What we know:
Blueprint: H1 11-26, E1 31-37, E2 40-51, E3 56-63, H2 72-87, E4 92-98, H3 102-110, E5 114-125, E6 128-138
Parallel strand pairs: 3-4
Antiparallel strand pairs: 1-2, 2-3, 4-6, 5-6
Amino acid sequence: MALIPPKTNNIRDTRLFIEKSLKRLSENNGYWAGIWYNAILVGSIGYLYIDWTARKTEIGYWLGDDYVGKGLVTCACQKLINHAFMDLELRKIEINVASKNTKSKAIPERLGFKKEGVIRNFEYLNSEYLDRTVYGLLKEERTINRNP
C-alpha cells in the first residue's frame, strides 16, 4: 500500500511543478528548495504557502526512497524552521502528513511539533481514503538552533 502521491512520470510533470513553484516564489507565497546528498538531488522541501496576515506557513517535503533514514529531511526542516521564525518573523509552522506514514510523522514529532488533530478522509489516493495528521509549532515553543 503506497502512502505517497504518484511519482513524476515525465518532463511535463516536472515542468508544471517548476512553473507552479516559480509562481509561488514570485508572489512571495512560499518556495521550494532541493535536498542534496553527496552532490545528488535526493528530495525537495519548501513552504507550501505563507499566510502573512496570520504569520504562518506549512512545510512540505519529499525524499527519494534510497535516502530515507539519514536525517536529511529533519535537518532540512530545521533550517526552514529557523528561517521562518528568525528571518521571516512568522509565528506558526505546520507540517501535515498522511496519518499512516509513520516515518513522515516522526519528523515533526522529533522537532518538537505538537499534534493538533486528525482530518479524516483528507484525500483519496491510490484507491484509498487517507487521514491527515496536523502538527503545529509556535515560535514561543521553539528554542531556535542557530547552527543546525
